[in-house]
Amino acid sequence: WTSDSGNFYPGLQVYYIHSRDIQKTGKGYFTDASSLVLKPGEKKTYSFKFSAVRAGDNSPQTSADDPNNSSDSVEERENNMSVNILLADDHKMIREGLKQLLEMYDDIKVVGEAGDGFECLNLADKTHPDVILLDINMPNLDGLQVLNIIKTQKMDCKVIVLTIHNEIEYLIKAIDFNCDGYILKDSDFDTLKNAIMTVYEGQTYIEPTLVPLLNVRLAERDLMKDKSKELTRREVEVLKMIASGSSNKEIASTLSISERTVKNHVSNIFKKIDVSDRTQAAVFAIKNDIIKLK
């Protein structure tokens, strides 16, 4: 337990403090509790400090007679710690506006601003934000690419996609890349604040207006995945070639089978995935990652 100056005051008993009990802003810890027992009228100053500790069973006790002692509890001190935010948007005006709004709150601090994907990754590594507000449309690396890198590398931060895109495909892609939140830029500021605090506490926040359509689309995708599992290996090969624009004759030549056999495969594929033409089959293949768009 320490004041901002690092002073320990008379009558203050400091018990064993372990590094795991210190918030990540901390810079050190004590292992010798006896050296921290002060006699009445005695004052010691230590050369290092830490911002906050979690209270254990042996919580520090303060002297009620000491005017320098704070009446705040450890929990209150922890609640006052800021959520560090990194803003990533290619429009400077948007970044500056967000920063001004966010820093109206004592529990939020903007630690960096990035104008493109590469800068976002560099600042994330440098500033160690708790939450990144990430736009999708950015130069060099777009927001979804940045999100994928952050999650693949298991960087210790939450990511909220803050975007103009209300198309469900963008949201699903962000979810596939394990985003922690997705919110539209036309949302009110209370919604943004709620999203930040929700993901900071380890939960997921999705723009409420997008949730109904998201549920429908995810259910459809699960159904399509079940259908794709019914396809044989040969049928998957044929479907890939259909999606690539190959004719039955070209498929037959490539796979060294007859055109009649190809027609049978195509007919079976259409039945299994519930489509009626080659275009719908191609769309099915793309949506289910059976074929990748280049």
Condensed summary:
By secondary structure, this protein is an alpha/beta fold. It has 11 helices and 8 strands. α5 links the parallel β6 (158-163) and β7 (181-184).
Compute the number of helices. Answer: 11
**Major sheet details:** 6 strands, parallel
Rg on CA atoms, Å: 28 Å
Q: What characteristic shape results from the CA principal axes?
A: elongated
SS content category? alpha/beta
Strand content: 5-15%
Q: Mean of residue pLDDT?
A: 78
Any low-confidence stretches, pLDDT <50, length ≥5?
1-40, 42-78
Looking across the biggest beta sheet, what order are the strands in?
A: 4-3-5-6-7-8
How would you describe this structure to a colleague?
With 294 residues, the chain is α/β, with parallel strands linked by helices. Helices cover 41% and strands 11% of the residues. The strands form two sheets. A six-stranded parallel sheet has the order 4-3-5-6-7-8, sandwiched between helices. A two-stranded antiparallel sheet has the order 1-2. Helix 9 crosses helix 10 (259-273). It is elongated.
